[in-house]
Amino acid sequence: MTAHTLPDWIRNAPALAGLDPEAQARLAALVPQALPRGAVLFRPGDPVEGFALVLDGRVEVFLTGANGRELLLYAVEPGQSCVQTTLGLLGGEGIYSTEAVTVTESRVALVPKPMFLSLMDQAPGFRQMIFSAFAERMGGMIQLMERVSFQSVECRLAAFLCERAEAGRVQATQAEIAAQIGSAREVVSRRLDAFARRGWVHTERGAVRLTDPEALGRIAASGSA
């Protein structure tokens, strides 16, 4: 199979376009699947059956505690990897303990476990792609642990609002914000009320409008309120 006969999804993905021809030919047999927003890729207890190559869109991976609280562990976008999937395929019990959900319309190609393991063993370029993405993802996980462990809720909330605001507005429910910053909805609600009393935000149904983004930026940078 020549470069001209490869599927567009391989030619247009930088990480895949650099693989050796044999690895590309094997991946070319896969058929990407279009997924709507809100599709569940896996849930806790599901077996790890393959490696999902995210070609378009965004997939978020959540951990749910015994009390029902959710924590966003990481998001997977084109060129990135899912830590738990990689670990489940390479060793361990091979069972998911997290949930992965598409937050936008997405396109995913699933590499079956036998093909994944064979490519890891026989295709150096594929192996390097997986390990590089894994290392980058682990760095992000360490940063998450640092934020949740050492930064105040106010700091994490202010940083989230500043980073996610579009035209001065964040479209997200308080439960969604809580999952993103590793807190409880009730805590987020109280902190948003405090921000509103200071004139920094205005809460709306399913959204938060930033009325003083400069003040929020200072809180985000300081690590305290």
Secondary structure: elements and pairs:
Layout (H helix, E strand, L loop, with lengths): L7 H4 L2 H4 L3 H7 L5 E3 L4 E3 L7 E7 L2 E6 L5 E7 L6 H8 L8 E4 L3 E7 H10 L1 H27 L2 H12 L4 E3 L2 H8 L3 H13 L3 E4 L2 E4 L2 H10 L3
Antiparallel strand pairs: 1-7, 2-6, 3-7, 4-5, 4-6, 8-10, 9-10
Question: Can you offer a commentary on this structure?
Answer:
This protein has 225 residues and is an alpha+beta fold. It folds into 2 domains: 147 residues, Jelly Rolls (Sandwich), CATH 2.60.120; 72 residues, Orthogonal Bundle (Arc Repressor Mutant, subunit A). The chain contains 10 helices and 10 strands. The chain has a 4-stranded antiparallel β-sheet. Strands 1-7-3 form a 3-stranded antiparallel β-sheet. Strands 8-10-9 form a 3-stranded antiparallel β-sheet. Helix 7 packs across helix 8, helix 7 crosses helix 10 and helix 8 packs across helix 9. The termini are far apart. 29% of the residues are buried.
Give the tags.
225 residues, alpha+beta, Jelly Rolls, Arc Repressor Mutant, subunit A, 2 domains, 4-stranded antiparallel beta sheet, 3-stranded antiparallel beta sheet, 10 strands
